[in-house]
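Q: Hi! First time doing this. I have a protein sequence and I read that you can turn it into a structure. Is that right? Here it is:
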Amino acid sequence: MAVVCRFWALLSLLVVSLAACSGGSPTAKHTTPTVGTPPLNQTVAVESGYPQTESFCAEPPLTGGIVYKVTGSAARLDLHLTKLPNQALVGLDWRNNDARGYLIAAFSTDSHGQAIQSSLRFFRPGEAEGVGLVVTTDSDRTVVGRLGPC
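A: Yes, that's right. Below is the predicted 3D structure, encoded as structure tokens:
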């Protein structure tokens, strides 16, 4: 069931991404994160999820990190991740422990393998303190990289 849900979530993200790209330039555009309200689908309620901010640092070959940031009753992900596959759609799995992990978000990368913050679709919060994040490809769930608590 989880694989089916992941498939449909990533498929819907791909459809939204393709629709957004159909009217624009084929070159990737970088956006600078700004202070204020993030775009739609970049925050999730943490009513029963993990309610604390946590930073994750990339393990080689990836560089950078991701911040799971909680403000009030909402969580968001700040993506600062590089050396990902170029122009790819990737999934982000939250790891509660060595045995439990689940898809929480998906995002696209640019032609240089950098995460595109504006492409982020955040599906659900972490359930407990994270022991790590796993980045996978959308098509075959190949592990692209891992991040651990900083």
